[in-house]
Amino acid sequence: MKTIPLPQPLLVVAAALALGQAGLAQNQLLEVLKDENARGAEFWIYNDLAAARAEARRTNKPLFVTFRCVPCTACKGFDAEVAKNNQRIIRLAQEKFVAVRQVEMKGVDLSQFQFDYDLNWAAMFLNADGTVYARYGTQSAEGADAYNSIESLEKTMRRVLALHESYPANQAALAGKLGKPKPYKTALEMPGMKHRSKLAGGTARNNCVHCHNIHDAEHEQLRAAGRRNHDVLWRYPLPDNLGLRIDPGDGRVIRSVQANSPAAKAGLRPGDVLTHADNQALTSIADLQWVLHNLTNSEATVTLKATRGDRSITKQLAMKAGWKKTDISWRGSLWSIKPVLATWCAPMKEKRVKSLRLVKGVKPLEVRWINTDRPEGRNAKRAGLRKGDIIIGMEGEPLRMSSQHFNMHVKLNYKVGDKLPLTLLRDGKRIKFDWPLTDRD
Q1: Which residue in 128, 165, 361, 380 has a CA-CA distance of 20 to 30 Å to 179?
Q2: Minimal CA–CA distance to 322: which of 228, 215, 230?
Q3: Residue 67, SS3?
Q4: pTM (2 decimals)?
């Protein structure tokens, strides 16, 4: 059957209608998610990577893709600065990039977009052909914004523009920035992704595929295969694990070097400017984390290139086994690791803590909620745990850790079927309690 081409005016109308429908859908999603930081920032292509890539091909501009978990409060201020408040970032994003605001992981190509999915705010910079230029966004137990700044983001953006200007002659320095292909394309195709049918429905604040859900599914894959391994938890190690403190206002300048660390032994100094790691061009702290993420947690080496004054230097750092281990209490995906406590154990206000007359330094946690919709919560309640119980000791010692570190300690040191020995305060009396870490009724 012969196809009759549409007249040019009709093609224009059809394209306009398609764009209008896409814009309507995007506005509806913005309203459903209550994405306040996106209001008044219409230059961002909203949650449409395919349209952004087409625009990047048309304009020969690099892609600037931000990933933002809208319901999360962490990084909200930084997100607002990037999205609509900081004029330097906005001008760069509008004039030099195709800017994309991605607000969920549903439909995102997980082979193309590999980054630290526990971040509350992250960015990737790409060529329209899929070549990765850079990653931006770093988080730690120090806080969601401890390593992010408008100053370093702007510098990363300008470094990306320089890489884009030199492309494809600089392909060798970019080759390692694209991760290995995944055996699935999107989040909903991942083995281990829970609540798949619910997540496949229309997106809402309580129904979007969060970035950390990707790591959750990876954990479930390992558990189902009987390959639980703590090494997988030490994702995207900080430069601090090498003994390097990077200036968060720049992203590449070494602020300090820890004595006797791999960095110190290799001869790196404060003021050195990192340019490459294992031959990959660096634009940010996250770029260095990507290189470190792909190294083993056993003995490993990394080659760093830097400038020192007007000369270039190359240093090889040697790390000992276990070098990736760090404080991961902040990671959202940690909660999916078994054993699951299925309770909310909250810190107490200082005035109330003083009234308990505990040993100095104790950080009691109050059981505020027991999730009896889960077998873990039901089992804890059957064993005698009550709402209002105050945890003051663990393993025969006073409790001296935050709620997040308490959760991390259990997951790193216990397995399903174990019992967690606690000391509780209930109605002013001390009680020994063995918390059953079981996941079945």
Answers
A1: 165
A2: 230
A3: strand
A4: 0.91
pLDDT digits (tens, 9 = 90+) for 326-378: 999 999 999 889 999 999 999 999 999 999 999 999 999 999 999 999 999 99
Topology alike, domains 10-187 and 239-319:
no
In whole angstroms, give the CA distance from residue 333 to residue 118.
6
**How far apart, in whole angstroms, are the C-alpha atoms of residue 7 and residue 60?**
28
State the pLDDT at residue 20. Answer: 46
Residue 305 contacts residue 276 (beta carbons within 8 Å) = yes
Please give the CATH number for the structural domain made up of 338-436: 2.30.42.10
- d(CA 43, CA 25) in angstroms, rounded, equals 16
Q: Is beta strand 45-46 parallel, antiparallel or unpaired with respect to 98-102?
A: parallel
**Domain 10-187 -> CATH class:** alpha beta
pLDDT of residue 18: 42
pLDDT at position 17 over 80:
no
- Give 106's DSSP letter: T
- Domains of the chain, by residue range, sit at 10-187, 239-319, 338-436
Residues recorded for the chain: 441
Whole-angstrom Cα distance, residue 237 to residue 441? Answer: 38
* Cα 428 → chain centroid: 41
The residue type at 98: V
- Which of 25-29, 203-207, 381-385 has the highest mean predicted lDDT (pLDDT)? 381-385
Task: Judge whether residue 11 has pLDDT over 80.
Answer: no
The residue that leads in pLDDT, 229 or 139, is: 139
Secondary structure of 386-441 as H, E, C letters: CCCCEEEEECCEECCCCHHHHHHHHHHHCCCCCEEEEEEEECCEEEEEEEECCCCC
What is the rounded (10 degree) CA torsion for 239, 242, 243, 245? -10
Share of residues in the chain with pLDDT > 70 (%): 94
The DSSP output letter for 182 is P
pLDDT tens digit string along 308-325? 999 999 999 999 999 999
Q: Whole-angstrom Cα distance, residue 243 to residue 284?
A: 17
239-319 CATH fold: Pdz3 Domain (2.30.42)
Tell which residue, 228, 206, 441, has the closest CA to residue 337: 228
Nearest to 50 by CA among 39, 41, 40, 63: 63
Nearest to 107 by CA among 228, 189, 25: 189
38: DSSP letter: G
Q: Look at residue 35 in the predicted model and tell me its pLDDT.
A: 87
Angle at 141 between CA 109 and CA 265, to 5 degrees: 95
